[in-house]
């Protein structure tokens, strides 16, 4: 096992884990607050990726500088979260809160199928490749290995900012506390003057935007084809379940764990590449069925 | 100020409130006495907007309350301390108490002023303010829930079985806090539910009995003789 390959695997894992975290933390947050396991979450990732790629191709096509892609990623993520996420919550999810889980899964799965097809209609089925932002940032040398700054620095930094930002938002702002209060006890929170309907909507939009941001960031690193959404939802569900649904810091650790596990497998046992995240999930859940981070000390959301 | 007329409400098709009439005047202390399951909690929950009301009306200062969304009702100055406390366990005591005022975007100076008033009524909470709410005893929790209701309840405070499950010493402390509240905020109306009428004898100037969702006023208040006449003891 050559050390450079191990290092390379670790760097890959860091970049990949950061990306999964962005998607999984939104899934986990939505579950923690709304109590709905949102299968359509993968679609927000995919739509975010396609919108970002289409935007970057349009930007570079017009001869504009590639760095404009970075602010555009954020705008695209928020737009996808507000428009697509907002519509899904307002028109559909609002009707199924508190209903049986099977119904919730079926409804969100149906939304996922609809969005998958809508995305094929809008963006077509040809692969999109928009790596201009990644090339613009250049590479960095780590112990003799050249790695893109985009994957090694930008994506993990964004993930870290999201983790810290989310923590501070939930803990230190009045609206964040309102979200936590609704999570713990919806009626009691309402009796304190909190509009739970609005809290649900905004939480869903935040979660959807984070998934779309993950998609936007991933668009520069890979070619987009139909089906990226389904791959991501399964993976981010594995992360959220490993961490314990509703745990934010837990999702970060689990994402890193699964990201590293997967990239180590890519280098050393490629046939296990796809399998590793689920093996990790199963191993964790066999020992701790409630997830790694579900204890009295850690907080739900 | 708060008028309930002919209020009927149900839970999953079962009537739990039947044509309830009750009125609460400004600054009044009113007791609502009834056994477990008689409908005390349901009546308070109906005022807060958590019940499916099928008939009758509630008015607050002459304004129909049933059309007001549940989360808007605290903004009218109605504070509510549920029976099972319902504190947010991951927040500290003070974060719990401040929460409703923060949510309603009360200015920081005003929050500080109200907090001071709350700690004057409930001095023991001042020492516990930075403790997590999860670690509170039952009695401390009841006081924190009262404090939280006080932060928004500038007009009315609804207390659901505040003495339920309190050790005698704590019940005395709680009663003292209520007396302090009466003295410092004479214009706030209090509606207190209880299964044991003797606990409220020294407070309530007006009382109602509730049985199987029906409310009747107990003539003569909570004096032993009138309780007996009403079939309570």
Q: Key features?
A:
heterodimer, A: 301 residues, mainly alpha, two-stranded antiparallel ribbon, 12 helices, 2 strands, globular, disordered C terminus, B: 233 residues, alpha/beta, Rossmann fold, six-stranded mixed β-sheet, four-stranded antiparallel β-sheet, 10 strands, 33% helix
Give an overview in words.
- The complex is a heterodimer of chains A (301) and B (233).
- With 301 residues, chain A is mainly alpha-helical.
- In chain A, 73% of the residues lie in helices and 3% in strands.
- Chain A has helices at residues 3-34, 41-61, 69-91, 101-123, 132-137, 149-172, 174-184, 186-191, 196-219, 228-243, 248-268, 276-287; strands spanning 139-142, 145-148.
- Chain A has a two-stranded antiparallel ribbon.
- The longest helix of chain A has 32 residues, at 3-34.
- The termini of chain A are far apart.
- The relative contact order of chain A is 0.21.
- Residues 296-301 of chain A have low confidence and may be disordered.
- Chain B has 233 residues and is of the alpha/beta class.
- Chain B has a single domain, classed as Rossmann fold (3-Layer(aba) Sandwich), CATH 3.40.50.
- The longest helix of chain B is centred in the last third of the chain and has 17 residues, at 168-184.
- The model of chain B has no long low-confidence stretch (mean pLDDT 88).
- Classes of the chains: A mainly alpha (301), B alpha/beta (233).
- Chain A binds chain B through residues 174, 177-178, 180-181, 184-185, 187-196, 299-300, and chain B through 48-50, 69-72, 74-75, 80, 82, 86, 88-91, 95, 99-100, 102-105, 148, 152.
Oligomeric organization of the protein chains: heterodimer
CA-based gyration radius of chain B: 17 Å
| Beta-strand residue percentage of chain A | under 5%
The major beta sheet of chain A can be summarized as: 2 strands, antiparallel
Strand order of the largest sheet of chain B: 6-7-8-3-9-10
CATH class of chain B: Alpha Beta
What structural class should be given to the helix and strand makeup of chain B? Answer: alpha/beta
Q: DSSP helix count of chain B? A: 7
Which second-level CATH architecture of chain B applies?
Answer: 3-Layer(aba) Sandwich
Give the helices and strands of chain B as they follow along the chain.
EEEHEEEHHHHEHEEEH
Biggest interface found = A-B, 19 and 25 residues
Chain-averaged pLDDT of chain B: 88
Low-confidence stretches of chain A: 296-301
Radius of gyration based on Cα positions of chain A: 19 Å
What global shape of chain A is seen?
A: globular
- Extended strand count of chain A: 2
- Count of individual beta strands of chain B: 10
Describe the global form of chain B.
Answer: globular
Sketch the topology of chain A as an H/E string, one letter per element. Answer: HHHHHEEHHHHHHH
End-to-end separation of chain B:
30 Å
CATH topology of chain B: Rossmann fold
